[in-house]
Protein 1
Amino acid sequence: MQRQKRALAIHDISCFGRCSLTVALPIISAAGIETTVMPTAVLSTHTGGFTGFTYRDLTQDILPIANHWQELELEFDAIYTGFLGSFEQVDIVAKIFDMLKKENVLIVVDPVMADYGKLYSIFPPNFPEGMRKLCQKADVIVPNLTEAALLLDAPYHDGPHTPKEIDDILRALASLGPKQVVVTGVSYDGIHLGSASFDVNTGEFSYTGETRIEPMYHGTGDVFASALVAALLGGRTLAQANEIAVRFTVASIARTKESGTDNRFGVNFEAGLAGLKDLIASLSA
Ligand code: PXL
């Protein structure tokens, strides 16, 4: 039996709405990976389309939790960060990377902060600078196109894009430091939607897209990035992990569309969990 891998997921808990930790924990666990959690904040719901949500900032708890783990000499195969609860948490999470980063720890940063050309209103205007610093410390980053533009301080347009535009964005993001870059929400023809990847180590570019399903569903970025982390820890290449994550996410969206669920309530990824290990294994390394 292979040694079981252990991931650390650093995100908020949105109690309702299927995003962040309530998505990362089941998806990564379903792939057979032990998943430790670091909650950055607790909200009654995510912030997309809901009003009146509660918000408890856990900034003060993060370092004491990490210090305790250090005393226990806990080690992780991957650290995967997403939605951070405050600007201050950027430096704290960077410190955690330094504390817990041993050889062969994969640092995956999803710089959750924006969508559809706009920074989320709960974040201050300098938040992208903080996320850029965190991305510079990462091995893998998973921005959407809006987040990519903010990280690069470049103009945003919502597409369709040319392959050259996307390749240039991927290369520019890689020049920030991460050796593997994935950009989500990419369409080359306005009909298909998917994500593009670039692996600096192999020079390989990839794209997987499927027919776009309307409307947009909340939490899909977290479903995608969680499946990507699971596939990378399963030994898949970046291009394979990208394909697996697109397939897993689009199947979740299709089920949700079919059942007519409110698009704020997240997607039905649960029905895909039992097949995730097989999906990851079906693309051989
Ligand atoms: O899905 C990203 C996400 C995570 N956590 C919270 C959010 C969002 C996106 O809006 O609001 C609290």
Protein 2
Amino acid sequence: MILLKTATDLSFFLSAKKAQGLQTGFVPTMGALHEGHLRLVEHSKKNNNITVVSIFVNPTQFNDPQDFTRYPVTLENDIYLLEKTGCDILFLPSVPEIYPSGMQLTQPYDLGYLETLLEGKYRPGHFQGVCQVVHRLLELVQPANLYLGQKDYQQCMVIRQLIHLTALPVQLEIVPTKREPSGLAMSSRNLRLSENEKKAAAVIYQCLVTIQAGLKPGSLDSLVTEATAAILAAGFDKIDYVSIADAATLLPVTAWDGQSKLVALVAAFISGVRLIDNLTLN
Ligand code: AMP
């Protein structure tokens, strides 16, 4: 695996590979890698000649400064895991490499209503920061395929909109969520939880499965109310949302027609750590 730290080195290296007709797959991450990230790398390896992974804890997407400073960093282990998985290039840029003219966003991205609900509502500015970094990375890497995790359901929709807005010639591939045996979605933020907290946190997935099992046409209110109560009873401090939404638009669905595709989404805090998860229901 080749480790590159500057935008110039990365562009130089990849343009030579492109000239040879080689196709690149790209997996952007913030590090503290786990098996979920490695799934994305494996998907990329299967379908591309070269797989590039970036590790960059992007300051502009953290609406909570404490979340940024506490974000786990496990670089040595990340490098070990990526080598083991067969990643070809690790891009490890500094802030000035990503934002050479500063972090200020000059032209906001038109994300429409996606910025006003769920993650957009509870993390103001977050998706603008995500678009800012992914746009820059896509311009540098110019991949044929981009791999994102379904765990960040709304983020996938936002990046689809970014690709539409920028007309970048990249195909988006969404990889299913990798879970712990308990059902807890793997997340870098799980590193900040104790074993007991991780056990308790599995309630989120249990609730998503219960919602799925209880789905029937008509009002969905009681499914949401019961899931909310169960998450709080398991020891979560605060819930941002438990939502059942249209899987294509993310607009809330309070009464189901028995036909439309639905997704259930949760964001909640345990011991100050914010976890998100989702499950497509039908
Ligand atoms: P992050 O490092 O959290 O920014 O995540 C980098 C990429 O990995 C994103 O596309 C995430 O959606 C994806 N990802 C994170 N956790 C998982 C998981 N448990 N399963 C699959 N993909 C994941």
